[in-house]
Design goal:
207 residues, single chain
């Protein structure tokens, strides 16, 4: 009995330490929905890019006009905003069920470490767009997002690290297959988010 009580106390102490050092209320369902949003956005972007009269449906004749670029930017911002709102709402709900505070020291550290690579990459990519170097935009978004996930994983669920590593792999692969950025976006931000979100949901959220 004393041994079981001792092990229970150790387990409780470990849980308390995890709660204080890591944000464990990250919702897996929000990852699934973010992936769905991205796949819908990718489908809309594909329609704009490849079925516009200016492109003739062929990549070799691809022309990105200012109007198309604005439409693509609107889609991207919409997907990002929807994903962020969903993550905040569902993570807050999960934290409430666990009697945790969604905005604590651990979540602050997670957000800061996530935003540093992401913000840096975002500024760099905007410079590339301004210089009309569009071929590297897709690989770099995957690479910087992967770095952000790996960097933030120290302060949240460890599964985020594997998502980040997968994104890094897809980003590097995308640099070899320039011109297929939309496909790699759909694979990375869409399929991978759904896959890892599902793993996190069944592993943590349904307990």
């Amino acid at each position: 009995m004393e041994k079981e009580k001792y092990l229970s106390d150790i387990s409780e102490i470990k849980n308390l330490m995890d709660r204080s050092s890591r944000f464990i209320s990250l919702s897996g369902l929000s990852g699934i929905l973010a992936g769905v949003y991205c796949l819908v956005g990718a489908a809309l972007a594909y329609k704009i890019i490849y079925f516009d009269n200016a492109t003739l449906g062929s990549y070799s004749d691809l022309i990105i006009t200012e109007t198309m670029l604005l439409q693509l930017f609107t889609i991207a911002v919409s997907v990002i905003v929807l994903s962020l709102v969903t993550a905040v709402v569902l993570s807050s709900r999960k934290a409430k069920k666990s009697n945790d505070n969604v905005w604590n020291a651990a979540s602050k550290r997670m957000v800061i470490n996530f935003m540093i690579p992401l913000f840096t990459g975002g500024i760099f990519i905007l410079f590339l767009i301004e210089k009309e170097i569009l071929g590297l935009v897709a690989p770099l978004t995957l690479l910087f997002y992967g770095l952000a996930c790996v960097n933030a994983s120290k302060y949240t669920l460890g599964d985020l690290r594997y998502l980040g590593i997968t994104m890094l792999f897809l980003g590097l692969l995308s640099t070899w297959f320039l011109g297929y950025g939309l496909l790699f976006w759909a694979l990375g931000f869409g399929v991978c988010h759904i896959l890892y979100g599902s793993i996190m949901y069944f592993k943590y959220d349904r307990k």
